[in-house]
Design brief:
Layout (H helix, E strand, L loop, with lengths): L1 H32 L7 H13 L6 H35 L12 H14 L4 H29 L8 H26 L5 H10 L7 H20 L1 H4 L6 H6 L4 H23 L5 H13 L3 H23 L9 H25 L7
Helix pairs in contact: 1-13, 3-8, 3-11, 3-12, 3-13, 4-5, 4-6, 4-7, 4-11, 5-6, 5-11, 8-11, 12-13, 12-14, 13-14
Length: about 350
Amino acid sequence: MQRLVQNRLVKSKSLLLPAAIIVALVTLVVALTIGRYALSFTAIARILWAAMSGQPQPDITAATVLFELRAPRVFAAFIVGAALAAAGAAYQNLFRNPLVSPDILGVSAGASLGAVLAILLAWPLAALQGAAFVGGLAAVVAIVAVGRLVDQRNTMSLAYDRTLTLVLAGVVLGALFSAGVTLIKSMADPDNKLPAITYWLLGSFSAVGVGELKFALVPMLGGLATLWLLRWRINLLSLTDDDAKALGANLGMLRLWVIAAATLLTAAAVAISGAIGWIGLVVPHAVRLMVGAEFSRLLPLAMLIGGTFMVAMDTIARSIAATEIAPGILTALIGAPMFIYLLARGHQSSNQPQRGQP
């Protein structure tokens, strides 16, 4: 009986990835039809057929809306959600803590500080992405440095909690970077730069076009490819340092590559969409409860669910009211209660005795 239950669980887990792919494709297609200028499935099919066959477009306006406005925005929302979920999964494995995310660690705040500084100085998009990466990387380096400093001073304390230290360090450094963002806003031109910074900080995909997508795809694909190539070795980070070294892992180099890839993903996402929270925390945590912490299963499913969730939130944000709502507001409204539920569920399941235990 127990073996039958285990076989069913394994089979159900193996169906999660195909199901997530189907749901993602359906969500993307439905999102293309929704907006101020409604597009039917038939109209989209005709536009795509005309584009592939080289025939004249049956409706120039609809084709322009689809290719220049709707499709880039939907695709941007998907890759941003996928990137944030992948970065969150990598950080959680790196720090051995399911409560870690780019937001809590201060990486998003650091990337936002770099991006806001680039907006103030009127830098081009490529330089903005570079500044966001440097800011996010500085946040991770600062958190690791604070963690090591506290480790050295509390190695003999029985009450010391390294995970709590990292989280608190991330919260404090995130507040420090947010103060830097506020300082830059106070220095910005109120007629030009300040509205651009404020609008960008709200988080939105309305200004994303084909050009922005091209800039963002290169660092995102680089970060995702790095995590995928290291997917087997990343599992070693869940072991103790001695056990991982005994298996031949170069932990210093491995951590460096994971930090660089996850920070690059976060910075690229922040650069084109602004600071959008909760996806990097909730999605990997939920996927881990479904398929476990094995990274080769965790990463693709987290990316698909994160991208689908972000597309759904952006579609609702641009269609629920007369004026567009920042998608970051919806991710917080839905993500916070969902995370509380997942946290309570995970804690309850961890406290349940296994078979054969008292």
